[in-house]
Amino acid sequence: MKKQAFNPYLPSWEYIPDGEPYVFNGRVYVYGSHDFYNGYVFCMGDYVCWSAPVDDLGNWRYEGVIYKKTQDPENSDGTMCLYAPDVTVGPDGRYYLFYVLDKLPVVSVAVCDTPAGKYEFLGYVHYPDGTRLGEKETDEPQFDPGVITEKDQTYLYTGFCGIGDKSRSGAMVTILDKDMLTVKTAPKIIVPGSEYSKDTPYEGHAFFEAPSIRKRGDTYYFIYSSEVMHELCYATSKEPTGGFKYGGVIVSNCDLHIDTYKPADMPTAYGANNHGSMVQIGDDWYIFYHRHTNGTWYSRQGCAERLTFGEDGSIFQAEITSCGLNGGPLVGEGYYPAYLACNLFTNEPSIYVDERFPKIMQDGRDGDEDPAYLGAIVDSTTVGFKYFDMKNIHQISIDVRGYIKGSFEVKTAWDGKVLAQIPVEYTNVWKHYSTPVDMPDGEQALYFTFKGEGKGSLKGFYLEH
What's the predicted TM-score (pTM) here? Predict the structure, then answer.
């Protein structure tokens, strides 16, 4: 039996942001950095990998640790973190892992014979004279490598451009020789950073970090995180080394710019930085990105949405959902955990995640396989799930915990008609509450809005006939 696919697509206790997805031998592999629950900085863990069959995207398999941070000779004491990686298949058919350590301006490379085996350190990207890329006097520091290999050449995309830093020009592309380490053509700027984007199509959405590259047909898609951080944008070209034209926003992890179910300037989730890329799985293309949990920037989880393209190759911005890789609505009955919420906000609007606001969280410590839930729910908190194929639902139930008293309104739109109210009361253990409801049939969103006092948690809900 195939499993439904959700957002986040990995277990609720796993934190793999910066996802770079690829299809190898009938499976989707996702490479990313590794956050911890309750982490105090980004990317505290070793690289791990997860994969799923292309025809069963709800059935993810843990492939284990593929590379330890102490394997890099510059980090034998483990004091530096492994930042966002990327993988490419080299001319020799082996798999090459490109990454940077958090305090160094150079790109490291590891190699493996299989997509998710034990990668071994290979070396540092360097010029023919041995100088490491990023350490030459005229070099800008290297960051967030994205790679694509065509024939005997690998194109390496890097860069980080903080607002106000005129020493960082934009995203760079460097051509590597077939040994995957030697610079064949020096770095070239292809997309401007914020300090150099004025009066260009990139202004307001200039390059910040997270360069990634994909090819669809004869078009190269350069994907990156913009200066506002919560969005992934793209630019296109017919050549991998230049001529990129700004295309627009692919996804925002707070759903800004989407105006189909709310005003375009209204955030309906707490966002922050973003990083990801797109991949074709079967006949469909998906964008992988990440969301933030636990009220911090440092515990991020991978999500994905199906993409729609225009005839000219343009990408329509993807709406964030709970069903992501499912390719369609979820079954409109049964139990669903609350951590699948794609919308979470109060009447105090905010784009960026903050410990003051409702949050996705879990009991226990990082690595404990305890299911996540929604915490810090207060008056006016709205929780949204999209989408379900509702059929003949006449009762809805929720599991709630905490010192909270009031009621949860049940709706099919964040500002829609109240279909039912579920009264709740103070409790220090999970308590089950039910109420009758006449849920409209068909594809529907589901929203709960709490009205009352105190602060509590929502574990999950039940759709019942």
Answer: 0.98
